[in-house]
Each structure stands twice: as C-alpha cells, then as structure tokens.
Design a protein that fits this description.
Layout (H helix, E strand, L loop, with lengths): L3 H22 L3 H9 L2 H4 L17 H13 L7 H5 L4 H12 L3
Length: 104
C-alpha cells in the first residue's frame, strides 16, 4: 500500500471537519431571525406565546437548547416539535435558543 494514502485520507478528513466548522460559524443573524419567525405560529411573535404554545422569550439558552436537542433526538415528545427540530443542525438549534433567550 502506498504510504501517501493515509496522509491523503487524513487531509480529506481534516478538510471535511473544517468545512463543517465553517458552515456552523456561517450562521448569520438574519438566518436566525428568519427561522425564529417560523416559530411564531405556535410560540407567538418574538416567542411570547398567548395560549397553548410554550413561552420562549427570556428562557435560558441552556434550557431551550436542551429541549430542542431532546425533540431532535426523540427523547422529548410533542405534537410537532420533534419534526421541526430534526430539520436543523445542532449549531442552528443553539443559535435559535440563544436568540430567544436574549428577548426580554
């Protein structure tokens, strides 16, 4: 076996990892606001639910992120949140949690 193959494989793995990190870092505030706007149907404008939806505004970042991950992983059940959460990457869910946690 050619000794260059493992080196090339390591470089390829590094490049894939670097690309994934760059994608996570590329989340723009306007993307987050757009995603958050889609939450308004159930959670109210700016996460301030009126009625049955959970109030998101001002809830701690850690708590929201943990719940979103639980929905995504299927360990927390809801009518539709588990389906929504699966559509986002973990860094995107983190950005959404941070967005809502900063709303007063």
């Amino acid at each position: 076996m050619d000794r260059r193959v493992p080196v090339v494989m390591c470089l390829a793995a590094w490049w894939v990892g670097a690309a994934a990190m760059a994608q996570a870092a590329a989340i723009s505030p306007s993307d987050v606001r757009l995603w958050a706007a889609s939450c308004a149907a159930c959670h109210g404008p700016h996460g301030k639910a009126e009625g049955a939806g959970m109030y998101l505004a001002g809830v701690s970042n850690d708590k929201l992120y943990k719940r979103l991950l639980e929905f995504k992983q299927g360990t927390r059940h809801a009518t539709i949140m588990h389906q929504h959460a699966k559509g986002y990457s973990d860094p995107e869910l983190q950005a959404l949690a941070e967005h809502f946690s900063k709303i007063k």
